Task: inverse folding
């Protein structure tokens, strides 16, 4: 592996993935909405063929997606084009040119037992346009039998106009504002750097199919925030609350890493380890500019 092309390179994951790859000497071609390439890959799929032919990457990774649930509900056509059709176009182009393709998916498929880690083949529930379009993106991607789909729940730093979940927590804690944490929303959130390092394990093995990469346990958002607050000298109170969003959404998103562990021999970090790494990154300021 010498050259990797990343779509959505300026997003939370794209930035971390690019950083990790460049640290080990991999050339990264970043494809975003504006720079260095302007690609309207929704309307002009031929531009993707031209780009892949021009750059000849070894791997294409798609991190681009519309993740805002409310926006997806109000704009289902656009959500479908970005979350479903774009992966199909990218995966098809990669299959045509013999390029390994990786699609980053989601965990918004489960709404059953709270503290439960879901295997890749468990029954899913599609409650909103985001989940429907991301699942369609998985199906379209896997028409290419040499492609890899990753289900995950990511936390990290974006350093942009819209703070990430972790950036929001830190700002609230440092301002000594009280925070409401959801006790009815469970995830296996993993930091983007740990995720990127683990993803490379699967890529190096040229793994295909669907794999989970997540924290190796399941906790509520309330517990996640409470654990972050432990590291900060703050008078903020972490209060219990429940989701009041009117959009139907999955709430028990825990993922099981057994398939990944068996395939790679690597064990993903626990939630405590994820939070410790995020706090250390924030304090070092190497990837963070809040």
Result:
């Amino acid at each position: 592996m010498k050259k990797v092309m990343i779509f959505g390179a300026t997003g939370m994951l794209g930035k971390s993935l690019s950083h990790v790859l460049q640290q080990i000497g991999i050339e990264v071609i970043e494809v975003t909405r504006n720079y260095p390439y302007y690609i309207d890959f929704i309307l002009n799929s031929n531009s993707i063929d031209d780009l892949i032919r021009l750059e000849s990457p070894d791997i294409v990774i798609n991190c681009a997606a519309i993740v805002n649930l409310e926006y997806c509900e109000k704009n289902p056509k656009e959500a479908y084009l970005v979350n479903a059709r774009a992966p199909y176009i990218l995966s098809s182009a990669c299959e045509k040119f013999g390029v390994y393709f990786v699609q980053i998916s989601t965990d918004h498929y489960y709404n059953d037992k709270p503290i439960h880690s879901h295997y890749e083949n468990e029954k899913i529930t599609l409650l909103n346009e985001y989940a429907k379009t991301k699942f369609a993106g998985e199906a379209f991607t896997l028409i290419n039998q040499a492609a890899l789909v990753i289900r995950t729940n990511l936390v990290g730093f974006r350093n942009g106009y819209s703070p990430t979940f972790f950036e929001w927590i830190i700002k609230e804690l440092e301002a000594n504002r009280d925070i409401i944490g959801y006790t009815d929303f469970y995830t296996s959130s993993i930091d983007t750097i740990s995720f990127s390092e683990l993803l490379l394990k699967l890529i190096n093995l040229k793994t295909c199919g669907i794999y989970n990469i997540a924290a190796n346990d399941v906790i509520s958002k309330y517990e996640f925030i409470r654990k972050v607050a432990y590291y900060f000298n703050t008078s903020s109170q972490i209060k219990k609350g429940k989701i009041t969003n009117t959009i139907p959404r999955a709430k028990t998103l825990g993922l099981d890493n057994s398939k990944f562990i068996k395939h790679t021999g690597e064990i993903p970090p626990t939630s405590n380890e994820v939070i410790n790494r995020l706090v250390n990154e924030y304090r070092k300021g190497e990837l963070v500019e809040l």
Q: What stands out?
A: The chain has one domain: 3-161+188-215+254-271. The first helix runs from residue 12 to 23. The domain at 3-161+188-215+254-271 is CATH 3.40.50.720 (Rossmann fold). The first strand starts at residue 3 and ends at 7.
